[in-house]
Amino acid sequence: MRSFHGQRSLTRAIQIVPFRLRHLPRVLRIERASFGADAWPRKYFLELYRDCRDFFVVAKVGGRIAGYAVACADKRNAEIASLAVHPDYRRRGVADALMRHTLAELSAAGVRRVELMVRTENLAGAQLYRSLGFRRVRLVPRYYEDSGDGFLMARAIQ
Ligand SMILES: CC(C)(COP(=O)(O)OP(=O)(O)OC[C@H]1O[C@@H](n2cnc3c(N)ncnc32)[C@H](O)[C@@H]1OP(=O)(O)O)[C@@H](O)C(=O)NCCC(=O)NCCS
User: Fold this and answer.
1) Is the CB of 92 under 6 A from ligand 1?
2) pLDDT tens, position by position, for the chain (158 residues)?
3) Ligand 1 binding pocket mutation candidate from 79, 88, 128 (most atoms within 8 A of CB)
4) Which option is the CATH number for 6-116: 1.25.40.10, 3.90.220.20, 3.40.50.720, 3.40.630.30?
5) Cα–Cα–Cα angle for 149, 154, 156, nearest 5°?
6) Ligand 1 touching residue 122 (CB < 6 A)
């Protein structure tokens, strides 16, 4: 009989590894597929690699890069700079795995508070962050270049 391992085996199949420059073309494709006109250009990612590489990771599913997350931190505070999962790999726990890994690494580095911005209309993003313990701090009107509003969200970590 064929065995069924369910969601737990999918979760186990997600591998989180440090971002390397060879991953950039795939990360840029994920970025464009996820953010469209809002997608960050290559030079932003090179800056993130220069400044925030300790917390820049990709998620692999079956050897294929399915998503990425990058956080920038100083001693006690960090910001989730960006997070995206390719549309073909969504709702399989990839973002959850990326975020849990990142929060654990930030915690190990001594960070105590993590912030992020999410567009007010980004229900998937907001729900993901809520499920990870982030709460809205305030509305930030016209935060985005196209004048879209964002929510600042934050959580403490131990
Ligand atoms: C938001 C995003 C990163 C989620 O990635 P994902 O790998 O599909 O998320 P996960 O499968 O890990 O979902 C974890 C939890 O987040 C929430 N969630 C994720 N996608 C959701 C959706 N479309 N609607 C509602 N809740 C959602 C759920 O609580 C989910 O748990 P569940 O599947 O048990 O219900 C992905 O949709 C994406 O890349 N969107 C475009 C870019 C973006 O919005 N980035 C984040 C804001 S900057």
Assistant:
1) yes
2) 344 444 545 455 999 999 999 999 999 999 999 999 989 999 999 999 999 999 999 999 999 999 999 999 999 999 999 999 999 999 999 999 999 999 999 999 999 999 999 999 999 999 999 999 999 999 999 999 999 999 999 999 98
3) 128
4) 3.40.630.30
5) 180
6) yes
Query: Token pair for residue 25?
Result: 């073309």
Judge whether 78 and 116 are in contact, CB under 8 Å.
Answer: no
* Mutation pick for ligand 1 pocket among 10, 90, 115 (CB with most ligand atoms within 8 Å): 90
Residues counted in the chain: 158
Residue 9, exposed/middle/buried by CB under 10 A (0-12, 13-18, 19+)?
exposed
Query: Residue 90 Cα, ligand 1 centroid: separation in angstroms?
Result: 7
Here the tokens at position 37 are 């006109």
